Structures are given as structure tokens and as C-alpha cells.
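G., before I forget:
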Amino acid sequence: MLLGLKQVWGLLLEVVYAVLHGSWKVSDIVAQIYQIGVRSQSVVMVTGAFTGLVLTAQTYFQFHKFGMDTLTLAVNSVAMCSELGPVLAALMVAGRVGAAMAAELGTMRVSEQIDALRTLNTHPVDYLVLPRVAATTIAMPVLVCEAVAVGIFGGYTLGVYGLGIDPIYSWANMVNMTHVKDLMTGIIKGFFFGGLISFTGCYKGLFCKNGAQGVGEATTDTVVISSIGILMLNFCLTLILSKIL
Amino acid sequence: MIKVSGLHKSFGTQHVLQGVDMEIQTGEAAIIVGRSGGGKSVLLKHITGLIQPDQGQVFINGVDISHLEERELLKIRRDMAVMFQGAALFDSMSVGENVGFYLQREGKMTTGEIEKKVAETLELVDLNGMQHKWPSDLSGGMKKRVGLARAIIHNPSIVFYDEPTAGLDPVVSDSIDHLIRRICDIRQVTTVVITHDMRTVRTVGEKVYMLVNGKIYLTATPDELFASQDPVVYKFVNGISDSEDVLS
Ligand SMILES: Nc1ncnc2c1ncn2[C@@H]1O[C@H](COP(=O)(O)OP(=O)(O)OP(=O)(O)O)[C@@H](O)[C@H]1O
Ligand SMILES: [Mg+2]
């Protein structure tokens, strides 16, 4: 446990050092943004869409009892922006990207490819960790925005065309009640979640042990740790951001 | 010059290196032999700074590298190359990208120049035109040769080979041995070869270090090694197992 914390701290310092003085290349980061960001879009959008749909439907069923139909979309939009968009998108990315990072780096570790890198004038943090952490941290806020947009659009479509909510009032309420602050909350969360997922995946992969089984464990650990981490961090961020934004 | 003094390393309760002392002169072709699992690869990883020792020092050209930071080590390793026992090719890259990796990272050459150099180096190891294959599509022996090409492409002044000929047919083994010898001669490269192959010892070696029970048991020329009447050495060279070994 103590050794683990020391390793985490060490890797964190290395990443910071690498950002400032390492020999990383923009092209590596761009390649990772494609791998991580662009290729996660479909998964994240489907998640956003169905979350928006079900949230709108459920909210409508309850609100309809009190005749508050036109507030349905406002609830959907606020919830999507500040909580559900970032959290669910991040959970999906943790499963897709975090796990893949741990598996890839873990395999490289156990097959001595990391050692080979180190003999080829390349620091593993510069070449493997930093591009992944940077790319995920950059891509995650964008993915959050996509999830939110699709979720709101889905909710609007279902509400107006499926459930027959009045579009004009709904729209006005939605725009009135959703503040820039809500969207900012989501984006800032996405930024932190991206860092958390990629750092966990890289850490677990780099310090992976015991061959194929170890790689499996690193992958599982990454998903579990980053998922729980996302939920806990989300709670903290909600409290903090509500104070400062 | 490479100097190792009093090197100890344990993994858990297993005491793999128990005080290794050796000195390899610049330009020398040194061979490290020893039983399988005896710690040769571990010793190599210490000399290249990939592992830190529990005790003892490793000096490369007079610099103690045993407790250097990774970024300091990278500078020292620029002059070194390692061919790994398991080839350790990057499996997400083609053969050409693997071989050209060092030059590409260094960023001093244009893509065209790198491609040319890659083609030349692949030719050296008898793998002409394999640039576009993937490591997973190669045989074990081919992987090793790609590993060799990747190691020597930047003209390092110290090259480590971990079992360069294991798993290769006798003809290719012989050509690899001669290649290693030639690189050593032409470029005055300090060469360290780990091997079980007595023919490599004969072809490449100038000095042989035998690792037994975590210590250097013998330092000798190849001729002295083959002529040795010491029972441990004799059995190793001639591949005779102890009867107790068989039973246990
Ligand atoms: N990272 C490690 N963790 C734990 N034990 C290790 C590690 N690396 C090596 N060992 C142990 O150290 C011993 C020596 O291993 P090493 O790979 O150096 O053997 P070797 O002499 O190269 O053998 P071979 O000729 O078969 O390649 C082995 O018993 C191995 O189990
Ligand atoms: Mg070995």
C-alpha cells in the first residue's frame, strides 16, 4: 500500500516533469487524441442519448402528475450538463480507454518492451504516459459536451414529439434554468475524470506484474478504481464547483 | 570500460546475484556464460541500468550508474544498445518502424534517410524487404534478428546481446556470430554477449566470464575455457549434467 502510494506519487511527479522538460511530441498526443477521443465518440453519444431519453421520460411521468410538463426538459438539461453527462461519459471511457491503456502498457511491460524503450533513448513517461494522459484530459471535456448535446437533443425530441410537451414553453424554461455554470461544471469534471482514467490506466499498466494474469488484473483494477474514483470525485467536484462557480 | 563491483540482487528470498565482480575493457568482446536461470539476464539489466542493485556498483566509463535517475541513465544509454533475449519488439509497430525507432525519436534524420538506413540495417541481418511485416508475423529467429537490427542501427559504442543465436538455425547463427564479430572489429564496439552457444564463444569471444551461483566463477579466454579441467567448467562446456541434477 505504502509502496503503491510512493509509486503513484513518483509517476505523478514524472508526468509533471515530462510536461515541462520531457522530450514528448505533439504528434504522439494527436495520435492518442484520435485513438481515445475520436474513437470513443460513438460509445459516448449512445450513452448520452439514452440517458437523456430515459431521464426525460421518467421526469415527465412524475411532473405530469402535477402539471409541470414544461419543466421536464429543464431538469433533463441541467442534470445532463452537470452530473449525468460527465459521469456516464467518463464511466464509458474508463471501460473503453482506461482498460485498453492498462492492457497495452501492461503487455509492453511484461514482454520487456518498456525496457526496450528505455534502451532506445526514450523515457516511457514521455513516450507512453504523457501523450495518453494529455490526450484523455483534452478529449474528455469534448466527449462530455457531445454526450450532453446528444442527451439534450434526445430528451427534446422525445418530449416534444413523443410525449407532446409544449415546445415553446419547454425551450424557454430549459434555456432559463440551464446556466453556463452547469455546463462549465460538466466540462471541468470531464477534465478531471480524463486525468483520473488515463493516469490510473497508465499506472496500472506500467507497474503490472506476473504475465498475462497480471495484465488481466491491471485491466480490471483500472476499471474498478477509475469508476469508483469517478463517482467519488464527482461528489467532491459537485460540492467544490457549486461554491466557486 | 564497464566495471561491476560487488553486485548483489535478490528477488524475494531468491538471491540471484551474490557479489559479481567483473571488468570489461573498451573494445573488448566479452562473453557471459552460465546455467539457465543463473542470473545472466539480470546481470545485463544491471549493467544497462534497467534494474537497480541491492548492493554494489556498476561503472560505465567511470560513471557509477547504479543509483542514477532514469533521465540521467537515458543519456548514458544513448551510447549503448541492447538486444533482448525475447527480442522485445514493439508489437504495435511494423518491422521498419521498430528498426528505425531510435533514429525517428532522435529526430536528426529525415524520413527518407531513416528508411534508407533501416533497409541497410535489415540487409545486414539478412531480412531484406521485411520493413512492412508485423512482429507478430515473424518467426522467433526473425524477431531476434529484427531486435539485433534495431539495437545496432545508431552505431552504439557498447552493445549487449542476450542470447543472440538461441533459436536460430546453425547457418543463420553462424552469420549472426560473424556479424557481431564484424561490428566489434570495424567500429571498435565494446561487445557483451550472453550465450549458451559454444560456437558463439569461439567465433566472437575474446574473454569469457562464467557466472556460477551468482558470482563470476571463471574469467578466461575461450581457449582456456575449452581447455579447462575444472569440473564445473568442464561439465558446462561439454554439456554434462550431474546425476543428482537429473534426480532432483
Ligand atoms: N523481475 C524478476 N522478478 C523476480 N524474479 C526474477 C526477475 N527477473 C529474474 N528473476 C529470477 O532471477 C533468476 C535469474 O534469471 P535470469 O533471467 O537472469 O536467468 P538467465 O541466466 O538469463 O537464464 P537463461 O539463460 O535461461 O536466460 C531466475 O530464477 C528468475 O526467476
Ligand atoms: Mg536470460
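Chain B has a mean pLDDT of 91. Residues 142 and 199 of chain B are 20 Å apart (CA to CA).

More on Monday.
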